[in-house]
Amino acid sequence: MPDTTHEPAAPRDTAIAAARETLESGRFREDLARRVAMPTISREEEHWPELERYLREEMMPLYERLGFSCEILRHRKAPGPFLLAERIEDPARPTVLMYGHGDVVTGIPEQWSEGLDPWEMTERDGRWFGRGTADNKGQHSVNLAALEAVLAVRGRLGFNLKYLVEMGEEYGSPALDAICADHKERLAADVLIASDGPRMSLEDPTIFLGSRGGINLHLEVVAREGFHHSGNWGGLLANPGVELSHAIAALIGPTGECLVPELTPGEIPQNVRDALKDCTITPAEGDPPLDPWWGAPGLTQAERVYAWSTLEVMEIEVGNLAKPLYAIPPWARARLQLRHPVGVDTSDVEPAVRRTLDAAGHERVKIVPAPDASFPASRSDLDGPWVRFAAASLERTAGRAPVILPNLGGSLPNAIFTDILGLPTIWVPHSYPGCRQHGADEHLPVSIVREGLGLMAGLFWDLGETDVP
């Protein structure tokens, strides 16, 4: 047999190793820590200068070093600018559009564990803690480091790449649709490949093809002005807290089932059931244990999260628990959130809720305008060629097949890419459900970074080969 001990590594493997070397050398950690230190909070106006600084000081120099042309795009609705970076190598080759966001939610430093700070990246137990490590600075940093490795080994990508970086996703992406519509021809591509949201679990490489929609519903009962002594007026004055509680019970069952049929898809497509039949949701260490009795009956837990609707109470307010008055409150308010898959008529959500409340005798409960942004549901074709291509690439690198989800359980502006730009969408997340995104102690496991660098370098390498959809 020939001696293969000293045979050179295949170029694809070399690119994967080069991507992972950025982690081993400490350079990736240094880059991400510098980005985390920028408080790019898009919902706090005093931090809006940081949004532009992130693009000009962190993103643009990197893209330009990698041979991209860069342009700052603006829209009056957005809290910060957009960056469009382009590297067009050959118009005859496939064109990929990538997306990421550099803004974050507020830091809430007072809620973080002792010794942790949202703006100083800290490593503990194999995890990097800091605001944006998981959502989304860490994820687009993985993709950029993998791109750099492929360019270093091959000398070119072998495909055309357009990269759109948003600085207002946590603000609700108020101008992303307008930017994509205004620059539709310039953003034309064959596929969107992006990274956001969590994997299905800590250990499983994952692809998802869209996201559930998100709609907020604000309910309110205002009975009168002022609090009134419960001994003198109890039994004589209607209690808004009680009224609102019964109204919510008309919408959501005692085990969490959404009771308004119009808010659900009615049925789950067979190919979606097939995709989820082997998916098991397993909490990681530190995650809360699951409640198998909660949610829509007759569905698996994976179907409840990825293929059905959930209507949840996010906040409810009546009186003041910290400073009780022992009086009947004058008003009660609640914010409910609907997460729904493709197949729900969103124009009928609020009317259906109104009909249900009225039918149950809760005419006094008002649906008030919700200032929160909403996201429509979207899902690319589970059987499409780009899904098969990406799954095969990830399996080749990881040595095991990735989990393929029809959509994320949460909400992303995916519909903008499918509906306005007409693109199939492939999301390869580099986080996991227990990452604490949007809360205190947000973190990113180093193991996911290591695997993600290899997965993306392999995917980018394969995109430069000839056999591409």
Automatic annotation (TrEMBL):
Keywords: Hydrolase, Metal-binding, Protease. InterPro entries: Cyt/Met_Dipeptidase, Peptidase_M20. The keyword Metal-binding applies. It comes from Tropicimonas omnivorans. Pfam families: Peptidase_M20. SUPFAM superfamilies: Zn-dependent exopeptidases (SSF53187). This is M20 family metallopeptidase.
